[in-house]
Design goal:
elongated, alpha+beta, 3-stranded antiparallel β-sheet, 7-stranded antiparallel β-sheet
Length: 276
């Protein structure tokens, strides 16, 4: 009788265990609107600044300012004053003993905006400048290496950068038992208005080609820099902490830890478990 009772008890416990496990598993998935997570990411990255510049006064026959562009993350991420500098190449061509070039003149970020897409997040950094984005220069190649007196910079139309922006696509990821962003791609958007430059006598074709080459290099260089900066452990740690604080407040379950995450139809599905 004791053997039969023991078997029955074990079976009952096993069934109860399975029921509890099923209940626990079904209850341990949380679904949040992507817009709610976007708000937390916005709070972390909203103060990020970008400065694009490579123009200097003429020195040694060149107007190029090396390593004058930068990305600065918010103080909460990298500490106050942390700025990463990088170089932008010039766009130029040589003709008739003169070096004609175009340089980026103080293009700065004007805002950071985070939104939820169906299966990812879009972080858009808008860019603007007080004057034209690219300005033309001309210098003599042979000594004395001075600004061209005739047929110089005045002959080069300034170039506007229309709808200048950086579009960043990121997907949610598990990080430190919380949720952070994994930057998938960075695209430099907008168009350079080179129409007037292409019409410059003698120089137009070459200058247009040079500006287009610079555009490609600028887009690639900036994309790589921003992707590297936003995928650092410091950014992910700060984002994860912000999301954790939000979940602790919203779900009133400070002991849960995120085990898996996915995103579909603008909804973030979070698999959680007990334990931080």
């Amino acid at each position: 009788m004791r053997v039969e009772m023991g078997t029955s008890v074990r079976l009952a416990i096993a069934v109860l265990g399975l029921q509890l496990a099923a209940t626990f598993a079904s209850a341990q998935q949380i679904t949040l609107a992507g817009s709610e997570i976007a708000t937390q990411v916005q709070a972390v990255l909203g103060a990020t600044t970008v400065h694009l510049h490579n123009l200097s006064p003429l020195r040694n026959g060149s107007y190029h300012a090396a390593n004058a562009s930068s990305i600065k993350l918010p103080p909460a991420v990298g500490g106050p004053g942390q700025r990463t500098y990088f170089d932008l190449p010039e766009a130029g061509t040589t003709i008739l003993g003169r070096r004609y070039g175009y340089f980026v003149d103080h293009v700065r970020s004007t805002g950071v905006f985070v939104s939820a897409a169906p299966d990812s997040f879009t972080i858009t950094i808008t860019l603007g400048s007080a004057g034209p984005a690219l300005v033309g220069t001309c210098a003599r190649i042979k000594p004395p290496q001075i600004a061209c007196a005739t047929l110089g910079a005045d002959a080069l139309p300034a170039i506007e950068w229309r709808d200048a922006r950086v579009d960043i696509v990121a997907r949610p990821m598990v990080f430190g038992r919380s949720l952070a962003m994994d930057v998938q791609s960075v695209t430099l958007g907008g168009d350079f208005d080179v129409g007037g430059t292409c019409q410059v006598p003698l120089l137009g074709t070459r200058l247009c080609a040079a500006v287009n080459r610079q555009s490609v290099r600028l887009r690639q260089s900036l994309s790589e820099r921003i992707k590297a900066e936003l995928n650092t452990a410091a950014v992910r740690t700060t984002t994860a902490a912000a999301v954790r604080a939000y979940l602790d407040t919203t779900l009133t379950e400070p002991l849960i830890g995120i085990r898996r995450v996915s995103m579909q139809d603008g909804q973030v599905r979070i698999g959680v478990a007990l334990g931080r």
